[in-house]
């Protein structure tokens, strides 16, 4: 299973814009610690551009940038509980509305959708 950032994916698909950097190549210039990427801006029309086949599933997470081994990475969290989420635990998924609410409170940098092989959904 994998975690796909919906804010980045839909923004790039619909606007032709590039997704925000993931921090892996955002170095300070001297090979030192990369700078922390910016949070993703919430799109008020996100529910309108995502298929209902996604927004009706309880497979959403929120995420924060955290430094792991000198790199910034997106760590998933359960939108309902605020605890770290696992992409392999279906109980860690939240509804789309729960994820949006948690993200707009400003505690998380973005939202994501946990892909699961039993639903035959593929992220590109």
Structure in words:
The chain is of the alpha+beta class and 124 residues long. The chain has one domain (3-19, 33-119). The chain is 22% helix and 19% strand. The protein is built from 4 helices and 4 strands. It has helices at 6-15, 46-49, 52-55, 96-104, and strands at residues 3-5, 60-68, 71-77, 110-114. A 4-stranded antiparallel sheet has the order 1-4-2-3. Strand 2 (60-68) and strand 3 (71-77) form a beta hairpin.
The ordered H/E elements are EHHHEEHE
| Mean pLDDT value | 78
Low-confidence stretches: 7-28
Q: Looking at the structure, what is the overall shape?
A: globular
Oligomer description:
single chain
Over the alpha carbons, how many angstroms does the gyration radius reach? 14 Å
Distance between the termini: 13 Å
Helix count, DSSP H or I runs of 4 or more residues? 4
| Main sheet attributes: strand count, strand direction, barrel closure | 4 strands, antiparallel
Total number of beta strands: 4
What is the strand content? 15-25%
- Helix fraction, binned, reads 10-25%
Number of domains: 1
Largest sheet: spatial strand order: 1-4-2-3
Secondary structural class: alpha+beta
């Amino acid at each position: 299973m994998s975690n796909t950032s919906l804010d980045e994916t839909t923004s790039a698909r619909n606007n032709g814009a590039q997704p925000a950097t993931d921090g892996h190549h955002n170095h300070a210039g001297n090979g030192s610690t990369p700078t922390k990427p910016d949070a993703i801006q919430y799109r008020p029309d996100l529910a309108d551009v995502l298929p209902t086949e996604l927004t009706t599933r309880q497979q959403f997470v929120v995420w924060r940038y955290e430094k792991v081994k000198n790199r910034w990475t997106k760590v998933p969290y359960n939108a309902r509980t605020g605890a770290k989420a696992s992409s392999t635990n279906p109980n860690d998924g939240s509804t789309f509305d729960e994820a949006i609410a948690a993200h707009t409170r400003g505690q998380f940098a973005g939202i994501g959708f946990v892909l699961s092989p039993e639903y035959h959904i593929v992220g590109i």
